[in-house]
Amino acid sequence: MKITLKVWRQANQNDKGGFKTYQLDDVSPDMSFLEMFDVLNDQLTRDGEDPVHFDHDCREGICGMCSMYINGHPHGPKQAVTTCQLHMRSFNDGDTITVEPWRAKAFPVVKDLVVDRSSFDRILQKGGYVSINTGGTPDANEIPIPKSVADQAFDAATCIGCGACVAACKNASAMLFTSAKISQLALLPQGDVERSDRAEKMIAQMDEEGFGACTNTGACSAECPKGISLENIARMNREYFSAKISSNLV
Amino acid sequence: MSSKLDSKIPTGPLDEKWTKHKFNLKLVNPANKRKYEVIVVGTGLGGASAAASLAELGYKVKAFCFQDSPRRAHSIAAQGGINAAKNYQNDGDSVFRLFYDTIKGGDYRSREGNVYRLAEVSVNIIDQCVAQGVPFAREYGGLLDNRSFGGAQVSRTFYARGQTGQQLLLGAYGALNRQIANGKVEMHTRSEMLDVVVVDGQARGIITRDLLTGKIESHSAHAVILATGGYGNVFFLSTNAMGSNATAAWRAHKKGAYFANPCYTQIHPTCIPVSGEHQSKLTLMSESLRNDGRVWVPKSKEDAEKIRRGEKTPQDLSEDERDYYLERIYPSFGNLVPRDVASRNAKNMCDEGRGVGPTGLAVYLDFEDAIKRDGENTISAKYGNLFDMYQQITDDNPYKTPMMIYPAVHYTMGGLWVDYNLMTNVPGLYALGEANFSDHGANRLGASALMQGLADGYFVIPYTVGDYLATLSYDKTPVDHPEFKKAEEEVKARMEKLLSIKGKKTVDDFHKELGKIMWEYCGMSRSAEGLKKAKGDIQKLKSEFWENVNVIGSNDELNLSLEKASRVADFLELGELMIDDAFNREESCGGHFREEHQTPEGEAKRNDEDFTYVAAWEYKGDDQDAELHKEDLEFENVKLTQRSYK
Q1: Which of B45, B44, B27, B47 is nearest to B36 (CA)?
Q2: Of B204, B339, B444, B526, which is the active-site residue?
């Protein structure tokens, strides 16, 4: 396959950045999208040019590191896959493909297609856990949980923290990401003790990081590589309102 | 020689060793814990659980990872499950049985004391994770579900669909986040450790490179814990993440830590076969698939050839034209034989010319019978995400046509030598999880890696590190100490050297060549002759690297090509040590198969008389061979037998 790539190049956070066009003449349909970038970078390196920087690690669709905005879609045109699991057979010979970084105030560009997603870590640090220490926990089977509840919690817990939801949202909202963790722990008895505090603090941090508001367009869920459901946002709102009614925080 | 290696395994009955040892370990007064600082490198299951647990105890912790967030560590990709001797299924499991299976699965090349402790704390791990809110699979009654896994005849594996590693890691990452929020852990992301600093024989800190700015930094502490994973990427193609590397462990080795059993690598039987030269990594299909999938190749070479040419499909072959070779050769374990056995047999079938797929390097993993028996819905509930992933990569639908699989490098049982306290021979330097060598012997059983990472981090290091810290004063070594300065200068010089070569070949050119040498001569089967050739080839490649590699860009920016060059330089050195170790070990055991040493049926043949030892290698300088130290393995509770899965 012949592919033309329009790729966002930006030397660092302060650089203005812009698109550069590259031509690849021998792309195999069996390549993953990132393997095509490996080929591009190999070509650039041999020509003495700086390779295109992009985040990637496991290349199995689970680490959440890869993050390319491809032809107007985070992780590209195919549903429910990450960039690393997108294959060139999803494109046609002769296509021009535009590749940009995630665009959001709370995800500043580091270099080329690499962005800083530490804002996600900081949201989770505000309560995306059960506050127990190591040791002294009851036997695992002393906490029976209905299978349907466990399955729902699992579905929320499969979020990989890639940020596609934010990139897809016109407001760059992080509601889907935040609600996935709040939901997982709100559904499970283990998370019950801290549920009010958790909802209030995580949402406050989300706002502080500069993520936008939610206007219920559902783009986040539609573009999520793990298919995290919008129901989580509804559940988070419910958690938040009930927390606020009895809040100790002002 | 071996007197230098004291494993510190406590004496006494097997089931009392750990309890007794815990009692004998020195304690640090709760009020004094905050005066000690511990560095943890790596934030996978071992590192995240250790950093969180140590901070909960009151120690000051600095944690480091090279990824953009601790949650991305490659533990996240583990699919199948985690073993624990809970015996929830009432099928005869016990701590002793898990211990026994693990020792036997490792082909009697691991320590009884360590493995028993691992089995013993396995039950606490499940309790801990459930309390954190890890959503394990459950039965309709609300209790935890289990499945069986390769090499075991009881159902002791806890799982969360095909994403167990993800859920366990997110649990540990949550615990770590809580301590970061509390100010007890100082987290450094996008930070790569490039050296250990040893002062007066004790590990006193590390040198890191900030991957965003290139700044070389010194960090001082009372103890250093490496939880930096394995070295499977020596082979270029493996199931490891692209960033997984051996640099931290290798630099520790060059600072005096012994590297143990480097030749023990696990080639996992169920991976998606290689499709072309562009391939950057291999993808594992969880071993749990072998619970329901049946492995086969065509009985005749002629059929195999027709399938390879596309003249026949697998469905064209009737039952008696198929060879379900694992069921045929190993009637009692069948498709559930341990990984090393399954991999070697797949290779044998392909070597006989009965492999399938365009390259002939693949065997079938067929779900037709399972789907007929249980229905597509049941199979999809168990393996849906794996089937989707398979289809995504290969464009084949495994519900309709058998999967094709082939073995690939997956895990490394070797690693830094540690004693029972998980301390290397360098005082104050510890290694956890895949980075150490201690629990899996010559072959790791499925669902045991997650168990070991979390055992080390949650339930071993929090006890043992105090025993060492209690002997130290509160003073840290200042970072302007000459040893820190010297190490910083060396790291800087190395980066500059890499950037200055400006040769003709890319970093990946070298990495691929190294991978080919390792796979050919130090992969699934090894011979003295091949290993000799490989050593020469690697030495040549290594000197060429330092004269002809081309690294683009500068040090003071995010530079993926420089990062990779520095890692590949270390892989080249480690590859040579792996070959030395494989050459030295004149026996076959577990994943280490020496062609000269096999039974008449082609199974691995151990030489217990001469090789019941851990081979721990001491670095002696760049141009010298490493020196071998032996730690004899003593078996008081199990009888060494020829492993049989027939």
Answers
A1: B27
A2: B339
A-chain residues within 8 Å CB-CB of B67?
A: 57, 63, 65
Q: How far apart are CA B174 and CA A163, in angstroms?
A: 18
Asked if residues B177 and A121 have their Cβ atoms less than 8 Å apart, the reply is yes
In angstroms, the CA B304 to CA B297 distance is: 8
Answer yes or no: do B71 and A161 touch at CB < 8 A.
yes
- Of B422, B450, B441, the residue nearest B103 (C-alpha): B441
Residue B509 sits at the vertex; the CA angle it makes with B503 and B510, to the nearest 5 degrees, is: 80
Per-residue buried b or exposed e for B113-134, using 16+ beta carbons within 10 Å of the residue's own CB: bbbbbbbbbbbbbbbbbbbbbb
Burial of A170 (0-12, 13-18, 19+ CB in 10 A): exposed
Say how far apart CA B332 and CA B340 lie, in whole Å. 17
Q: Which pLDDT tens digit goes with each residue over B517-545?
A: 999 999 999 999 999 999 999 999 999 99
| Tens digit of each residue's pLDDT (9 = 90 or more) over B488-502 | 999 999 999 999 999
Q: Is B283 on the interface with A (CB under 8 A)?
A: yes
Rounded to an integer, what distance in angstroms lies between the CA atom of residue B416 and that of residue B293? 36
CA dihedral B542, B268, B247, A52 (to 10 degrees): 80
Q: What is the ipTM of this complex?
A: 0.98
What residue of B is the nearest CA neighbor of A185? B133
Q: How many CA atoms lie within 13 Å of A44's alpha carbon, on the beta-carbon side?
A: 19
- Is the CB of A99 inside 8 Å of chain B's CB atoms? no
Contact A58 B77 (CB under 8 A): yes
Chain A residues near residue B51 by CB distance under 8 angstroms: none
